[in-house]
Amino acid sequence: MDGTTTSSPRQIRKLARGVGLRQVRLVSGSILFAYLVSHFLNHALGNISLEAMGDGVRWHTAFWQFLPVSVLFYGAGIVHVALGIWALYERRQFRWKTMELLQLVLGLSVPVLVITHVLGVRLAYTLHGTELLYPQVLFTYFISWPAWRIWGLVAAILAAWTHGCIGLQMWLRMKPFYKRAAPLLLAAAVLLPTFALLGVYQGGRIVVDNDSVEWRAENLSRDKIGTKAQHDAINIAVEYSLMAYLGLIALALLARGARALHERRGGMISLSYGNGRTVRVPKGLTVLEASLRGSVPHASVCGGRARCSTCRIRIIGDCSALPVPTQREAFVLHRVGTDDPSIRLACQLRPNADLSFFQLFLPHTVSADDHDGNPTRIGQERYLISMFVDMRGSTKMAEKRLPFDTVFIVNRFLGAVSAAVLDSGGRPNQFVGDGMLALFGLAVSRREACRQALRAAAMIAVNVDELNKFLSHDLREPIRFGIGIHGGEVIVGDIGYRDHMVFTALGDPVNVAARLQDMTKALSCEVVISDEVRATAGLAADALPQQEVTIRGRNEPMIVRSVTDARTLSALVADEPVVTA
């Protein structure tokens, strides 16, 4: 309990360090997209009846007009629009990919397309208490207004939905489940707006068919649609809002021009890539933007959004005069386990003087365009369980045996460990001398990955026991081992050069697993697992002895669980209901 309480503020601070404008844009956009889904589902009820649309809109408005939700929704709308205008101003390099250009154009056009509808409905309710429901709105679009207005509504629906889908696709494409979920997401992305448009059409047909003096008296009375004076006041508010929005876009474009003029007067800087290539660009561009402008290949899986670290560069020479890393850049660099001030993200660093550097990732092996083909191989953030297994006493063994005999025994040990890992659903990854790194969670949930790792540890003990019996005539003492298990976000991908590329994982959790394996010696046990793995696996809080230890390379102590006999783990992770802490 104390460990959890203590770690919560740390986790909150760690999360806050990773929040930047892109994360705010993602959250605000997700809220707006959730509203679209809810609204489109309501539209789709028009395929049943106008009454069904009316019943649905009561539930829809009850949720979205609930004051905290309403404040969150409109706040997200204002923030998202503001960040869209800021993105127009901020971007210095306009060599757009089709999706990026389409997303920006649609995003900036959506407020123009929906402002009449949104303010017309919302202001009528807020200012005059007039609640415009489907009969009143559909009458306006299908009968009262000219025909081009309904096509404006169609354009608004398609523009908002397409913009949201592009944003989600650019975010989710780096997630491990995306490849499996993509067909279902595509089906939903096509069917939902189709049913919504058909529902609006069917509802409009019902209104047109039922239009009569009696129907108008019932549905278009003054208390339901308001007075002409109220409509005129709302129309004026809509016009001023539209002019204000277009004025902000014009201001952003003017500000871009003023900035470009200022940067030209401020002089040019030279960026040297360490391979003889140099480009001259105005001050203010990021290194990645300079690479794009100078047609220099530069790795960037996430497209320069600070969601990966593949655009990393190492500064040559003095880096003390460089701008301080932004909060988001510092977070990403910390996530990949580097505090070296000479290593920076090219998509975030804006040098103000000549700079020499070299790229840490080869651009021909990592590109955003290739990401959809096989994202795991080129670099991806994943939550994985890392297991380090080490054979004890191999150095002493080698001193008293022939080289062939030593290699034979080490290979048999690594074979026993690998068999246990594979049988448990993991993946043997790296072999370093008599030790091995195994990864769990490449294709399963976090909970199952933790349980797989614990099962593997138990099976390793069994396999090594059998190996000791097999080699009993040739061993002076049984083979012993140590295992360290920890989980967390790591970078996985192919690392190496040309024909010597190896798929592996990089990051602090891998290093911690190695430290925990070393700790088995001091704790006189076979396995040390982090408390995070214990909790995620669903083991009871009192299932294993708890200790607070200091990990080399980390400033804060860590809660771990020690296991004297690894075979006891098999009973704890048996396929039965588990007890959560």
- Helix count equals 20
- Radius of gyration (Å): 30 Å
Shape: globular
Determine the N-to-C terminus distance. 9 Å
Set out the fold topology:
Blueprint: H1 2-17, H2 21-44, H3 50-64, H4 67-90, H5 98-128, H6 134-144, H7 148-172, H8 178-210, H9 213-219, H10 222-225, H11 228-266, E1 268-272, E2 278-282, H12 287-293, E3 312-315, H13 327-335, E4 343-345, E5 355-359, H14 375-378, E6 380-391, H15 394-399, H16 403-423, E7 427-432, E8 435-440, H17 446-470, E9 481-495, E10 502-506, H18 508-523, E11 527-530, H19 531-537, E12 546-549, E13 558-563, H20 569-572
Parallel strand pairs: 1-5, 9-11
Antiparallel strand pairs: 1-2, 3-4, 3-5, 6-8, 6-9, 7-8, 9-10, 11-13, 12-13
Notes on the structure:
Strands 6, 7, 8, 9, 10, 11, 12 and 13 form an eight-stranded mixed beta sheet that branches. Strands 2-1-5-3-4 form a five-stranded mixed beta sheet. It folds into three domains: 225 residues, no CATH class; 91 residues, Ubiquitin-like (UB roll); 198 residues, Nucleotide cyclase, GGDEF domain (Alpha-Beta Plaits, 2-Layer Sandwich), CATH 3.30.70. It has 581 residues and is an alpha+beta fold. It has 20 helices and 13 strands.
Q: What characteristics describe this protein?
A:
Alpha-Beta Plaits, alpha+beta, globular, disordered C terminus, eight-stranded mixed β-sheet, Ubiquitin-like (UB roll), 13 strands, five-stranded mixed β-sheet, 20 helices, single chain, 581 residues
Structure described in brief:
The chain has helices spanning 2-17, 21-44, 50-64, 67-90, 98-128, 134-144, 148-172, 178-210, 213-219, 222-225, 228-266, 287-293, 327-335, 375-378, 394-399, 403-423, 446-470, 508-523, 531-537, 569-572, and strands at 268-272, 278-282, 312-315, 343-345, 355-359, 380-391, 427-432, 435-440, 481-495, 502-506, 527-530, 546-549, 558-563. With 581 residues, the chain is an alpha+beta fold. Strands 6, 7, 8, 9, 10, 11, 12 and 13 form an 8-stranded mixed sheet that branches. Strands 2-1-5-3-4 form a 5-stranded mixed sheet.
